[in-house]
């Protein structure tokens, strides 16, 4: 998919739908997207971080769906590949943040306001239909 700014993040299995903003403009109730990287759906690894703990994210399993609505009126559909609970002192290693030829999404779900630990969701692009 070509580059397009993400607008919303959806987690259908948990009935979550959240606004997305570039990290430098993100508010406490929005998901932060790191605009220095790729956009969700583009080849490479897009990175997003939730501002606060989201309920039940640790219950996601491989095969779960994530959806990112984009400014080009397309929805990047991702399939969860891995869900990992990370400790406060852990930092993503090279395997987690490596470059990729396929379109991938890393979603860091913070455990608290200071984002010390939480859940790391890894997903890959599986579809990109036009938004309704």
Main features:
single chain; 132 residues; mainly beta; Sortase, Chain: A; 8-stranded mixed β-barrel; 1 helix; 8 strands; 3% helix; globular
**CATH architectural group:** Beta Barrel
Return residue spans where pLDDT drops below 50 for at least 5 consecutive residues.
89-96
Stated plainly, the CATH topology is called Sortase, Chain: A
Total strand segments: 8
Global mean pLDDT: 83
Query: What strand line-up does the widest sheet have?
Result: 1-2-3-4-7-8-6-5
Please state the CA-atom Rg, rounded to the nearest Å.
Answer: 13 Å
Helix coverage percent: under 10%
CATH class: Mainly Beta
Short description:
The protein is mostly beta strands and 132 residues long. It contains 1 helix and 8 strands, in the order ββββββαββ.
Describe the 3D structure:
This protein is mainly β. It has a single domain, classed as Sortase, Chain: A. It contains one helix and eight strands; from the N terminus they run E-E-E-E-E-E-H-E-E. It has one helix spanning 94-97; strands spanning 6-11, 16-22, 31-33, 44-49, 65-70, 75-86, 103-110, 118-127. It has an eight-stranded mixed β-barrel with strand order 1-2-3-4-7-8-6-5. The two termini are 18 Å apart. Residues 89-96 have low confidence and may be disordered.
What topology does this entry show?
Blueprint: E1 6-11, E2 16-22, E3 31-33, E4 44-49, E5 65-70, E6 75-86, H1 94-97, E7 103-110, E8 118-127
Parallel strand pairs: 2-3, 4-7
Antiparallel strand pairs: 1-2, 1-5, 3-4, 5-6, 6-8, 7-8
């Amino acid at each position: 998919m070509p580059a397009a700014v993400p607008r919303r993040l959806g987690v259908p299995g948990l009935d979550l739908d959240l606004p997305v903003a570039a990290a430098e403009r993100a508010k406490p109730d929005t998901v932060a997207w790191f605009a220095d990287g790729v956009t969700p759906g583009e080849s490479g690894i897009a990175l997003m971080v939730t501002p606060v703990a989201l309920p039940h994210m640790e219950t996601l399993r491989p095969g779960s769906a994530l959806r990112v609505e984009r400014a080009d009126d397309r929805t990047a559909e991702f399939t969860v590949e891995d869900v990992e609970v990370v400790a406060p002192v852990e930092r993503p290693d090279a395997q987690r943040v490596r470059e990729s030829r396929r379109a991938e999404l890393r979603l860091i779900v913070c455990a608290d306001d200071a984002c010390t630990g939480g859940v790391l969701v890894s997903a890959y692009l599986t579809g990109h239909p036009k938004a309704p």
